[in-house]
Amino acid sequence: MYKLICCDLDETLLNKQNKVGARNLAAIQKCRDLGVKFVPTSGRGYCSMQTVLRELGQAGLAGQYTICYNGGAIFENNGRLLACQEMPYPLAEQIFERGQEMGLGMQIYTEDSVYAYQLSAEDLDFCRGRVAFTDLPKGGIKFLEENGAKFAKILYSNSDYDQLLKSRELLADLASQTEISISSNRFLEINPAGVSKGQGLQFLARQLGIAPAETLAIGDSLNDLSMLKAARTGVGVANAVAEIRPACDYICQNDHDHGGVAEALERFVLPAV
What we know:
- By secondary structure, the chain is of the alpha/beta class.
- Helix content is 32%, strand content 23%.
- The mean pLDDT is 95.
- This is Haloacid dehalogenase.
């Protein structure tokens, strides 16, 4: 029986209104009633995930967990930090300067805020309801570092997917220091080396005494690939991008807007009762 489910949020669990949806909520609650851990697993920061945790009925609860920053931090939902891997400031500075050279809008994630740098109106509209931004202060990320900020990741924004891939190529010399993935077909997510959703799933499973064979992951995009591979069973919702489909054991008939997560749970977890 599956005991741990790690599930992406945007374009997987959440519909176009950034809500969980009734069918998904019902299936998740049935899993929780069985003692199965349903763990929201996202590139978002912990603070940005609170609205979703409240909708799931998991906000503030001990014994329920969240994986954020693509695996960069793992929380018990009562606020207890189980693990965190910071991005060293010299690396953050290099990535930020490269983004400036490429003329890209960026999101700079620290432990408690997300700072916006030259995001377009399209970027801001796309992120509305997902992320609350603070304008990057005068003095940039050096000012943040001097005032004690701890960096988690930096995200480049570009709605031109081909250009996004070129941006990734231009960071090839930083490959040994970073984990780079793509989300929503418009964001280049840059974490420190060793940080991934797959690593987060494996760490949490060990902490909870759950065997790899008892884990399931659900996602849609390239930043989900590592956890789809790490879990016993990897599931893609119907709108999953082509690049991750070969790594999936099952592709749902339903997309994120029509209960794809519920379909996965109904197929793999709930029939075992």
